Amino acid sequence: MIARDGANISLWQGTAEPYIPVRQLDTTRNYDVVIAGGGITGITTALQLQQTGLRCVVLEAHTLCFGTTGGTTAHLNTLLDTPYTTIANNFGKEGASLVAAAVREALNTVKGNIAKHGIDCNFEEATAYLFSQNENQTKELESIRAATIEAGVTASYTDSTPVPVQFEKALEIKNQAKFHPTRYVLAMAKVFEEAGGTIVQNCRVMATDNTDPLEVKTSLGDIKTGWLIYATHIPPGVNLVHLRCAPYRSYAMAVKLADERYPAGLSYDMYDPYHYYRTQLIDGEQFLIAGGEDHKTAHEDNTNAPFNKLESHIRNHFNVKEIAYRWSSQYFEPADGLPYIGHMPGQPGKILVATGFGGNGITYSHVAARLLSSIVLDKESPYIKLFDPNRIKPVAGFTNFVKENVDVAKQLITGFFTKEKIHGLADIAPGEGKIVQHEGQTLALYKDESGQVHTINPRCTHLKCTVNWNISEKTWDCPCHGARYDANGHVLTGPADIDLEKINL
Ligand code: FES
């Protein structure tokens, strides 16, 4: 089993073997490209660049696929979460056509990699179905159909879908795909190493000096490089992209069915948040994967509730024998509907970033790999301007999440707390955490399995918002830019790169 950023075990995590590193970080060596992040974006980009003759190193703060790659539901789509209606509104019809072309190339790249390297990851082409269930959704579906076709993606109405869910109208989009994401990435990592690339796990990129070559500070020492690429889902530090991306949690289950009626294809309803369904074959065993019940990170007090809602939704429509896996995962919603891929705003020109993939991270990972490679290799690409993180698209209604808890920054943990007082406040079960107010102070308390209470300063070390306890994943999650910490306050995922402060009593 591979490690992940939460207590729940995902299907992909439970059915893949951990990657065993074969090389160490050589701080005496100059690299052409340092890639921070060992998920699908980092590994794919690294391989693409290594194969051009550049010397690349992937630095992963934990272990490969620890973040969202291990928690995705692995849909490979040209039908995107952001409908082509929205993309055309924000980026014009030409922009929508470019996006459709970029994601089509991404799907072809995945397919090509699997064929070229003989990767066994249960890849299968599939048809996608988007269906409406009321009059408003049906109207919206018609607009989506028209904009999707105009963007260059073939879409047509169909009389049936593979899932036993009633619908008014349904759209069918062929030539989508699905696969086992962690097996794909781990196989690609092996190809990368065979091509001479280096992967170092448990090595966090901490900072970069604005020098040429760049001097990258890591938890295992400093290295020099021509380029630095942040493929960390969201970059560390404080940057414009943090204000233009909002973190969300999504919930998924992999289910065994009693009647073996596993649906073909990829199906999506049109609620907000929407539900999705697909089947995955792994080692001869079928699983129905269903997901949804998304919410802004740390904005749900009881994160068991979305799982309960999702389970009852699945049981309403399918004959469930067993919930084999359940897990939640994080994604970043971009302000204007498209990812930010390219030069990091306000940073030296040789620092690149890929973030804001929304719910299409697996597909956009390969758009990013191609686009970032074009930038490093100084090749022209029609996508550079489209996905430029420095673009300004003011979009009404998008919340700047940094404001939500900013008053907390004024708070200081100055009080004196005795062990007795803290234990009195910690009316929680072992293995649980809670935020408490005490004498004007806000504290994060975690009671470990032996009953000992740990007191933590709940101010996120990124920009000081107050973290919230995620009861189902046993993590402290930040509502502002999505940093996550384990129960003891150690950083799991950025943008924070410093642990929560422990308060010793
Ligand atoms: Fe930015 Fe927590 S992630 S304040």
From TrEMBL:
<keyword id="KW-0408">Iron</keyword>
<dbReference type="GO" id="GO:0005737">
    <property type="term" value="C:cytoplasm"/>
</dbReference>
<dbReference type="GO" id="GO:0016020">
    <property type="term" value="C:membrane"/>
</dbReference>
<feature type="domain" description="Rieske">
    <location>
        <begin position="420"/>
        <end position="505"/>
    </location>
</feature>
<dbReference type="GO" id="GO:0046872">
    <property type="term" value="F:metal ion binding"/>
</dbReference>
<dbReference type="GO" id="GO:0051537">
    <property type="term" value="F:2 iron, 2 sulfur cluster binding"/>
</dbReference>
<dbReference type="InterPro" id="IPR005805">
    <property type="entry name" value="Rieske_Fe-S_prot_C"/>
</dbReference>
<dbReference type="Pfam" id="PF01266">
    <property type="entry name" value="DAO"/>
</dbReference>
<keyword id="KW-0411">Iron-sulfur</keyword>
<keyword id="KW-0001">2Fe-2S</keyword>
<dbReference type="InterPro" id="IPR036922">
    <property type="entry name" value="Rieske_2Fe-2S_sf"/>
</dbReference>
<dbReference type="InterPro" id="IPR006076">
    <property type="entry name" value="FAD-dep_OxRdtase"/>
</dbReference>
<keyword id="KW-0479">Metal-binding</keyword>
<protein>
    <submittedName>
        <fullName>Oxidoreductase</fullName>
    </submittedName>
</protein>
<keyword id="KW-1015">Disulfide bond</keyword>
<dbReference type="InterPro" id="IPR017941">
    <property type="entry name" value="Rieske_2Fe-2S"/>
</dbReference>
<dbReference type="Pfam" id="PF00355">
    <property type="entry name" value="Rieske"/>
</dbReference>
<dbReference type="InterPro" id="IPR036188">
    <property type="entry name" value="FAD/NAD-bd_sf"/>
</dbReference>
